[in-house]
Amino acid sequence: MNLIFLAMALWQISFFIVTKKSLEAYPLPAKDEEGLFDDSNYWIEDFDLMLFDVLNDFLPKGESWSRDIVMYGNLESNVFEIGTNAHRVESVSFRIDFTSDYEDILRGIIEFCILNNLAILTTTDLEIVSLNFESVNQHIIKSPQVIRYNSFLYK
User: Fold this and answer.
1) Are 69 and 81 in contact (CB under 8 A)?
2) Does residue 98 contact residue 138 with C-beta atoms inside 8 Å?
3) How deeply is 61 buried, as exposed, middle or buried, from its count of CB atoms within 10 A (0-12, 13-18, 19+)?
4) Tell me: the pLDDT tens digits for 40-84?
5) Predicted TM-score (pTM) of this structure
6) Where are the extended beta strands (E) located within the chain?
7) Cα→Cα distances 84→46, 81, 126, Å
8) Which residues lie closer than 8 Å to 14 by C-beta, 6 or more apart?
């Protein structure tokens, strides 16, 4: 179960990352009766944790609140988290701080996904997002979080 998604600031929007290979086996991601998405089924193959070290180029590795979560970035801003169990990847997600200058970070995450045959899913409806900046950014801009945040800001 994805423990990473539990806390999110008003100024963040979350995404799941899964392997494209797993989407062939489980093509229709779905939430359970409690409205949660168990993405551990999408990490059934071994995925080397060292591959994530390239994230350091644009999101410095940080101290996680859990020894089972590898974290890049900052929990209060842009963050990329890998949930592990016995050093095996079980869950991957990231949050974008849409009040920050996030373009380089988002482009880096998208490039990482392309190079490692990964897919990005929205957390609201588990839609697969095209791996290009414009598609992911449009999802962010049109998200309820951004709309709600802007309505508070410009009242």
Assistant:
1) yes
2) no
3) middle
4) 888 988 888 999 999 999 999 999 988 999 999 999 899 999 999
5) 0.89
6) 12-19, 61-62, 69-73, 79-85, 88-97, 118-122, 128-129
7) 11, 10, 21
8) 5, 8, 93, 94, 95, 123
Domains of the chain (ranges; CATH) run: 4-153 (3.30.1400)
Please identify which residue in the block is written with the tokens 């414009």.
134
Sign of the Cα torsion 47, 53, 58, 61 reads positive
Q: Is the pLDDT of residue 1 over 60?
A: no
CA–CA gap between residue 26 and residue 74 (Å, rounded): 31
Residue position matching structure tokens 């392309």: 114
Determine the Cα–Cα distance for residues 41 and 34; give it in Å rounded to an integer. Answer: 17
